[in-house]
Every structure is written in structure tokens, then in C-alpha cells.
Design a protein that fits this description.
The chain has 126 residues and is an all-alpha fold. It has a domain of 77 residues. The chain contains six helices and no strands. The longest helix has 26 residues. The relative contact order is 0.07.
């Protein structure tokens, strides 16, 4: 009867949290990925795919936490990234429809400002 090759389960968890697949992890212990899958099921009482998904999500939460901490510490790049990805903020403004009345009102205000500026300029020349 052959002895089972030892598996460092802490390393397995670390690699799963980092996002490694079973085919990437198994060679660390010189075993076939099916052996890893079967022994994971024996150890944790759940299918490898469920266990690896659980560890992968743990990795995601760790990354999010570090990103969040960096943003709160003043990392502008991380604040912009989280703003765009989490808060759905964007660099480009939303398209705005301007009515003809708004254009005419703005033009009238600009004409008034131009006239007032010209009047001031004429008064100061005298």
C-alpha cells in the first residue's frame, strides 16, 4: 500500500485565496489534480469547486479591503479607480439637452455683461 503524499493545507488555502486553480496547485505536492480534488472533499466535506470558490471570494474580500484602506489613506489613484468601479462615477459628463430658450437667455446675459463692461471702459477713459 502506497503512502499518501502530504499536502500543506495552509499553502493550498493561500494559493486558492490568490486565485490559483487546482491544476496549478497540485504540482506543488507532486500529485494529480484529481487527487487534490478528492482529498479536499475528504478533508472539508465539500466538493473542491465549492471550497475553492469560497477561498477565492475570501481573496477578493481581502483585496477590496486593502484597496479601500489605500483610498481612505489618500491614494488618489485608488480613489478614482474605486469611484469609477464601485460608485459608477465617470470622467465624461452626462449629455445635457439645452433648449433654444436657454441659449437665448444665455446670449442675452452675455450681451448685457459685454455692454456693462464696455460702459465701464468708456467711463474710465473719460
Amino acid at each position: 500500500m502506497a503512502l499518501e503524499k502530504p499536502i500543506d493545507w495552509e499553502l493550498v488555502d493561500k494559493l486558492l485565496i490568490a486565485g490559483c486553480s487546482g491544476t496549478e496547485i497540485a504540482p506543488h505536492f507532486n500529485i494529480h489534480e484529481d487527487t487534490l480534488y478528492n482529498r479536499t472533499s475528504e478533508r472539508y466535506g465539500m466538493h473542491y469547486s465549492a471550497y475553492s470558490a469560497k477561498m477565492y471570494e475570501k481573496g477578493n474580500s481581502c483585496l477590496r479591503n486593502v484597496q479601500y484602506d489605500k483610498a481612505l489613506a489618500g491614494d488618489n489613484t485608488m480613489m478614482v479607480w474605486l469611484g469609477k468601479n464601485r460608485l459608477k462615477q465617470r470622467d465624461t459628463p452626462i449629455d445635457v439637452t439645452v433648449t433654444q430658450m436657454q441659449i437665448e437667455t444665455s446670449k442675452a446675459i452675455m450681451d448685457q455683461l459685454t455692454k456693462a463692461q464696455n460702459d465701464r471702459s468708456t467711463q474710465s477713459d473719460q
